[in-house]
Known about the structure:
The chain is mainly β. The chain is 2% helix and 33% strand.
Amino acid sequence: MIHTRKKWLLTGLFATGLALSVYACNSTIGVEMAPEPDMSYVNPDADHDGILDVDEGRAEGRDSDGDGKPDYLDLDSDNDGVLDADEGNGDIDGDGIPNSRDPINNTSPLPLHLTAISTPFSSPIGIDFHEPTRSVILSANYPSGLPSNLERITQDGTHFAFSALMGLTDEIKIATVRSGNVGGFLTGELAVGNGQDGQVVRISADGGKVQNPWVTLPGGSHGLFRGSLYFDTTGLYGGDLITATTAGEVWRIKSDGTPTKLASLGVHLEGLIVVPNLPARYGPLAGKILAGAEEQGNLHVLDNSGLVSSLMLGVQVEDIDIVRPSENFFGINFGTSRLLGASAADFNNMLGDIVLTQENVTAGTSGLFRLFWDGKTLSAQPIPLAPGSATVGQWEHVTFALAGIREVG
Length: 409
């Protein structure tokens, strides 16, 4: 017996993206699956950044940064170094331009709530994020360096020796390699000074291999590499290790150990970073190396040709960092053998900004400053402390890390 059936087509699209046909066959109700339609144009978010195409000006072909890629296909529509997915479509500075299209966040830093990590440590000095283990590594046991110089901290606060490096008695500042290095360094490798003139130590990502020294600069009287070390993440300097010494020298060191001097400033340098080449965000600092000179209150700006300029911003720079999305802040509160931390959420209105750290902190302040380019001038804006925040005594090294330690993260 042949059954006839009545059929009603549902014209809407369901969450599955499939058109459905519902039919009645005698007393039975069934569902037919129509072919999946072409969704290439009706997809409301072509670049999957969480912002609808209509809000990214697809109809008019809007290209906010003029890079030839329309906003609805551009993961960083304003070319400020922070992905649209992290910035969102809000307007944090209230200027009428959505965050994803606004390279200048013209608002003041929000109050910062610092939390004292309850785990005690033995005289820590340096600290940095270790990407392979999503944890933090610090230099500890200053000034004896015994029983070990470097420790890794897990999320529950447990800490243990990271490598066999021990007995170094000078302050140890740490640089770790982040993923995407174009210079031949491996993600998670470390570089530190060893307290000897012009010498750098290289440590494998698992801590199992220590080359001490790895590099010895030619000649002498270079100073010690506790000024600071930083692996170039921009590619502008070949992914090299950038170093600053206590005698004011700045060097590039390739992964094969070849050193090249960039400048000799004759003053103690501390704090070092390579700024992404994004002029809309960083103005005259874009693509440059920054090095602090806390004793003179200067921030020196350099490139491959040497010293470009020196800035007086009212900050005695101890350390320099860039705020990264979703990364918590950790800093060494020297003299207390404790770490202070803050949630990534406390820095949401400063994503991509440069943070300057000052060693000596005035009571009731954070000792942290946002280095801000407003399109015309540079300024150092104090980051205020929130009520109930932990007290800062003296900063040493600080870092942003995609990691948590006990009370933070």
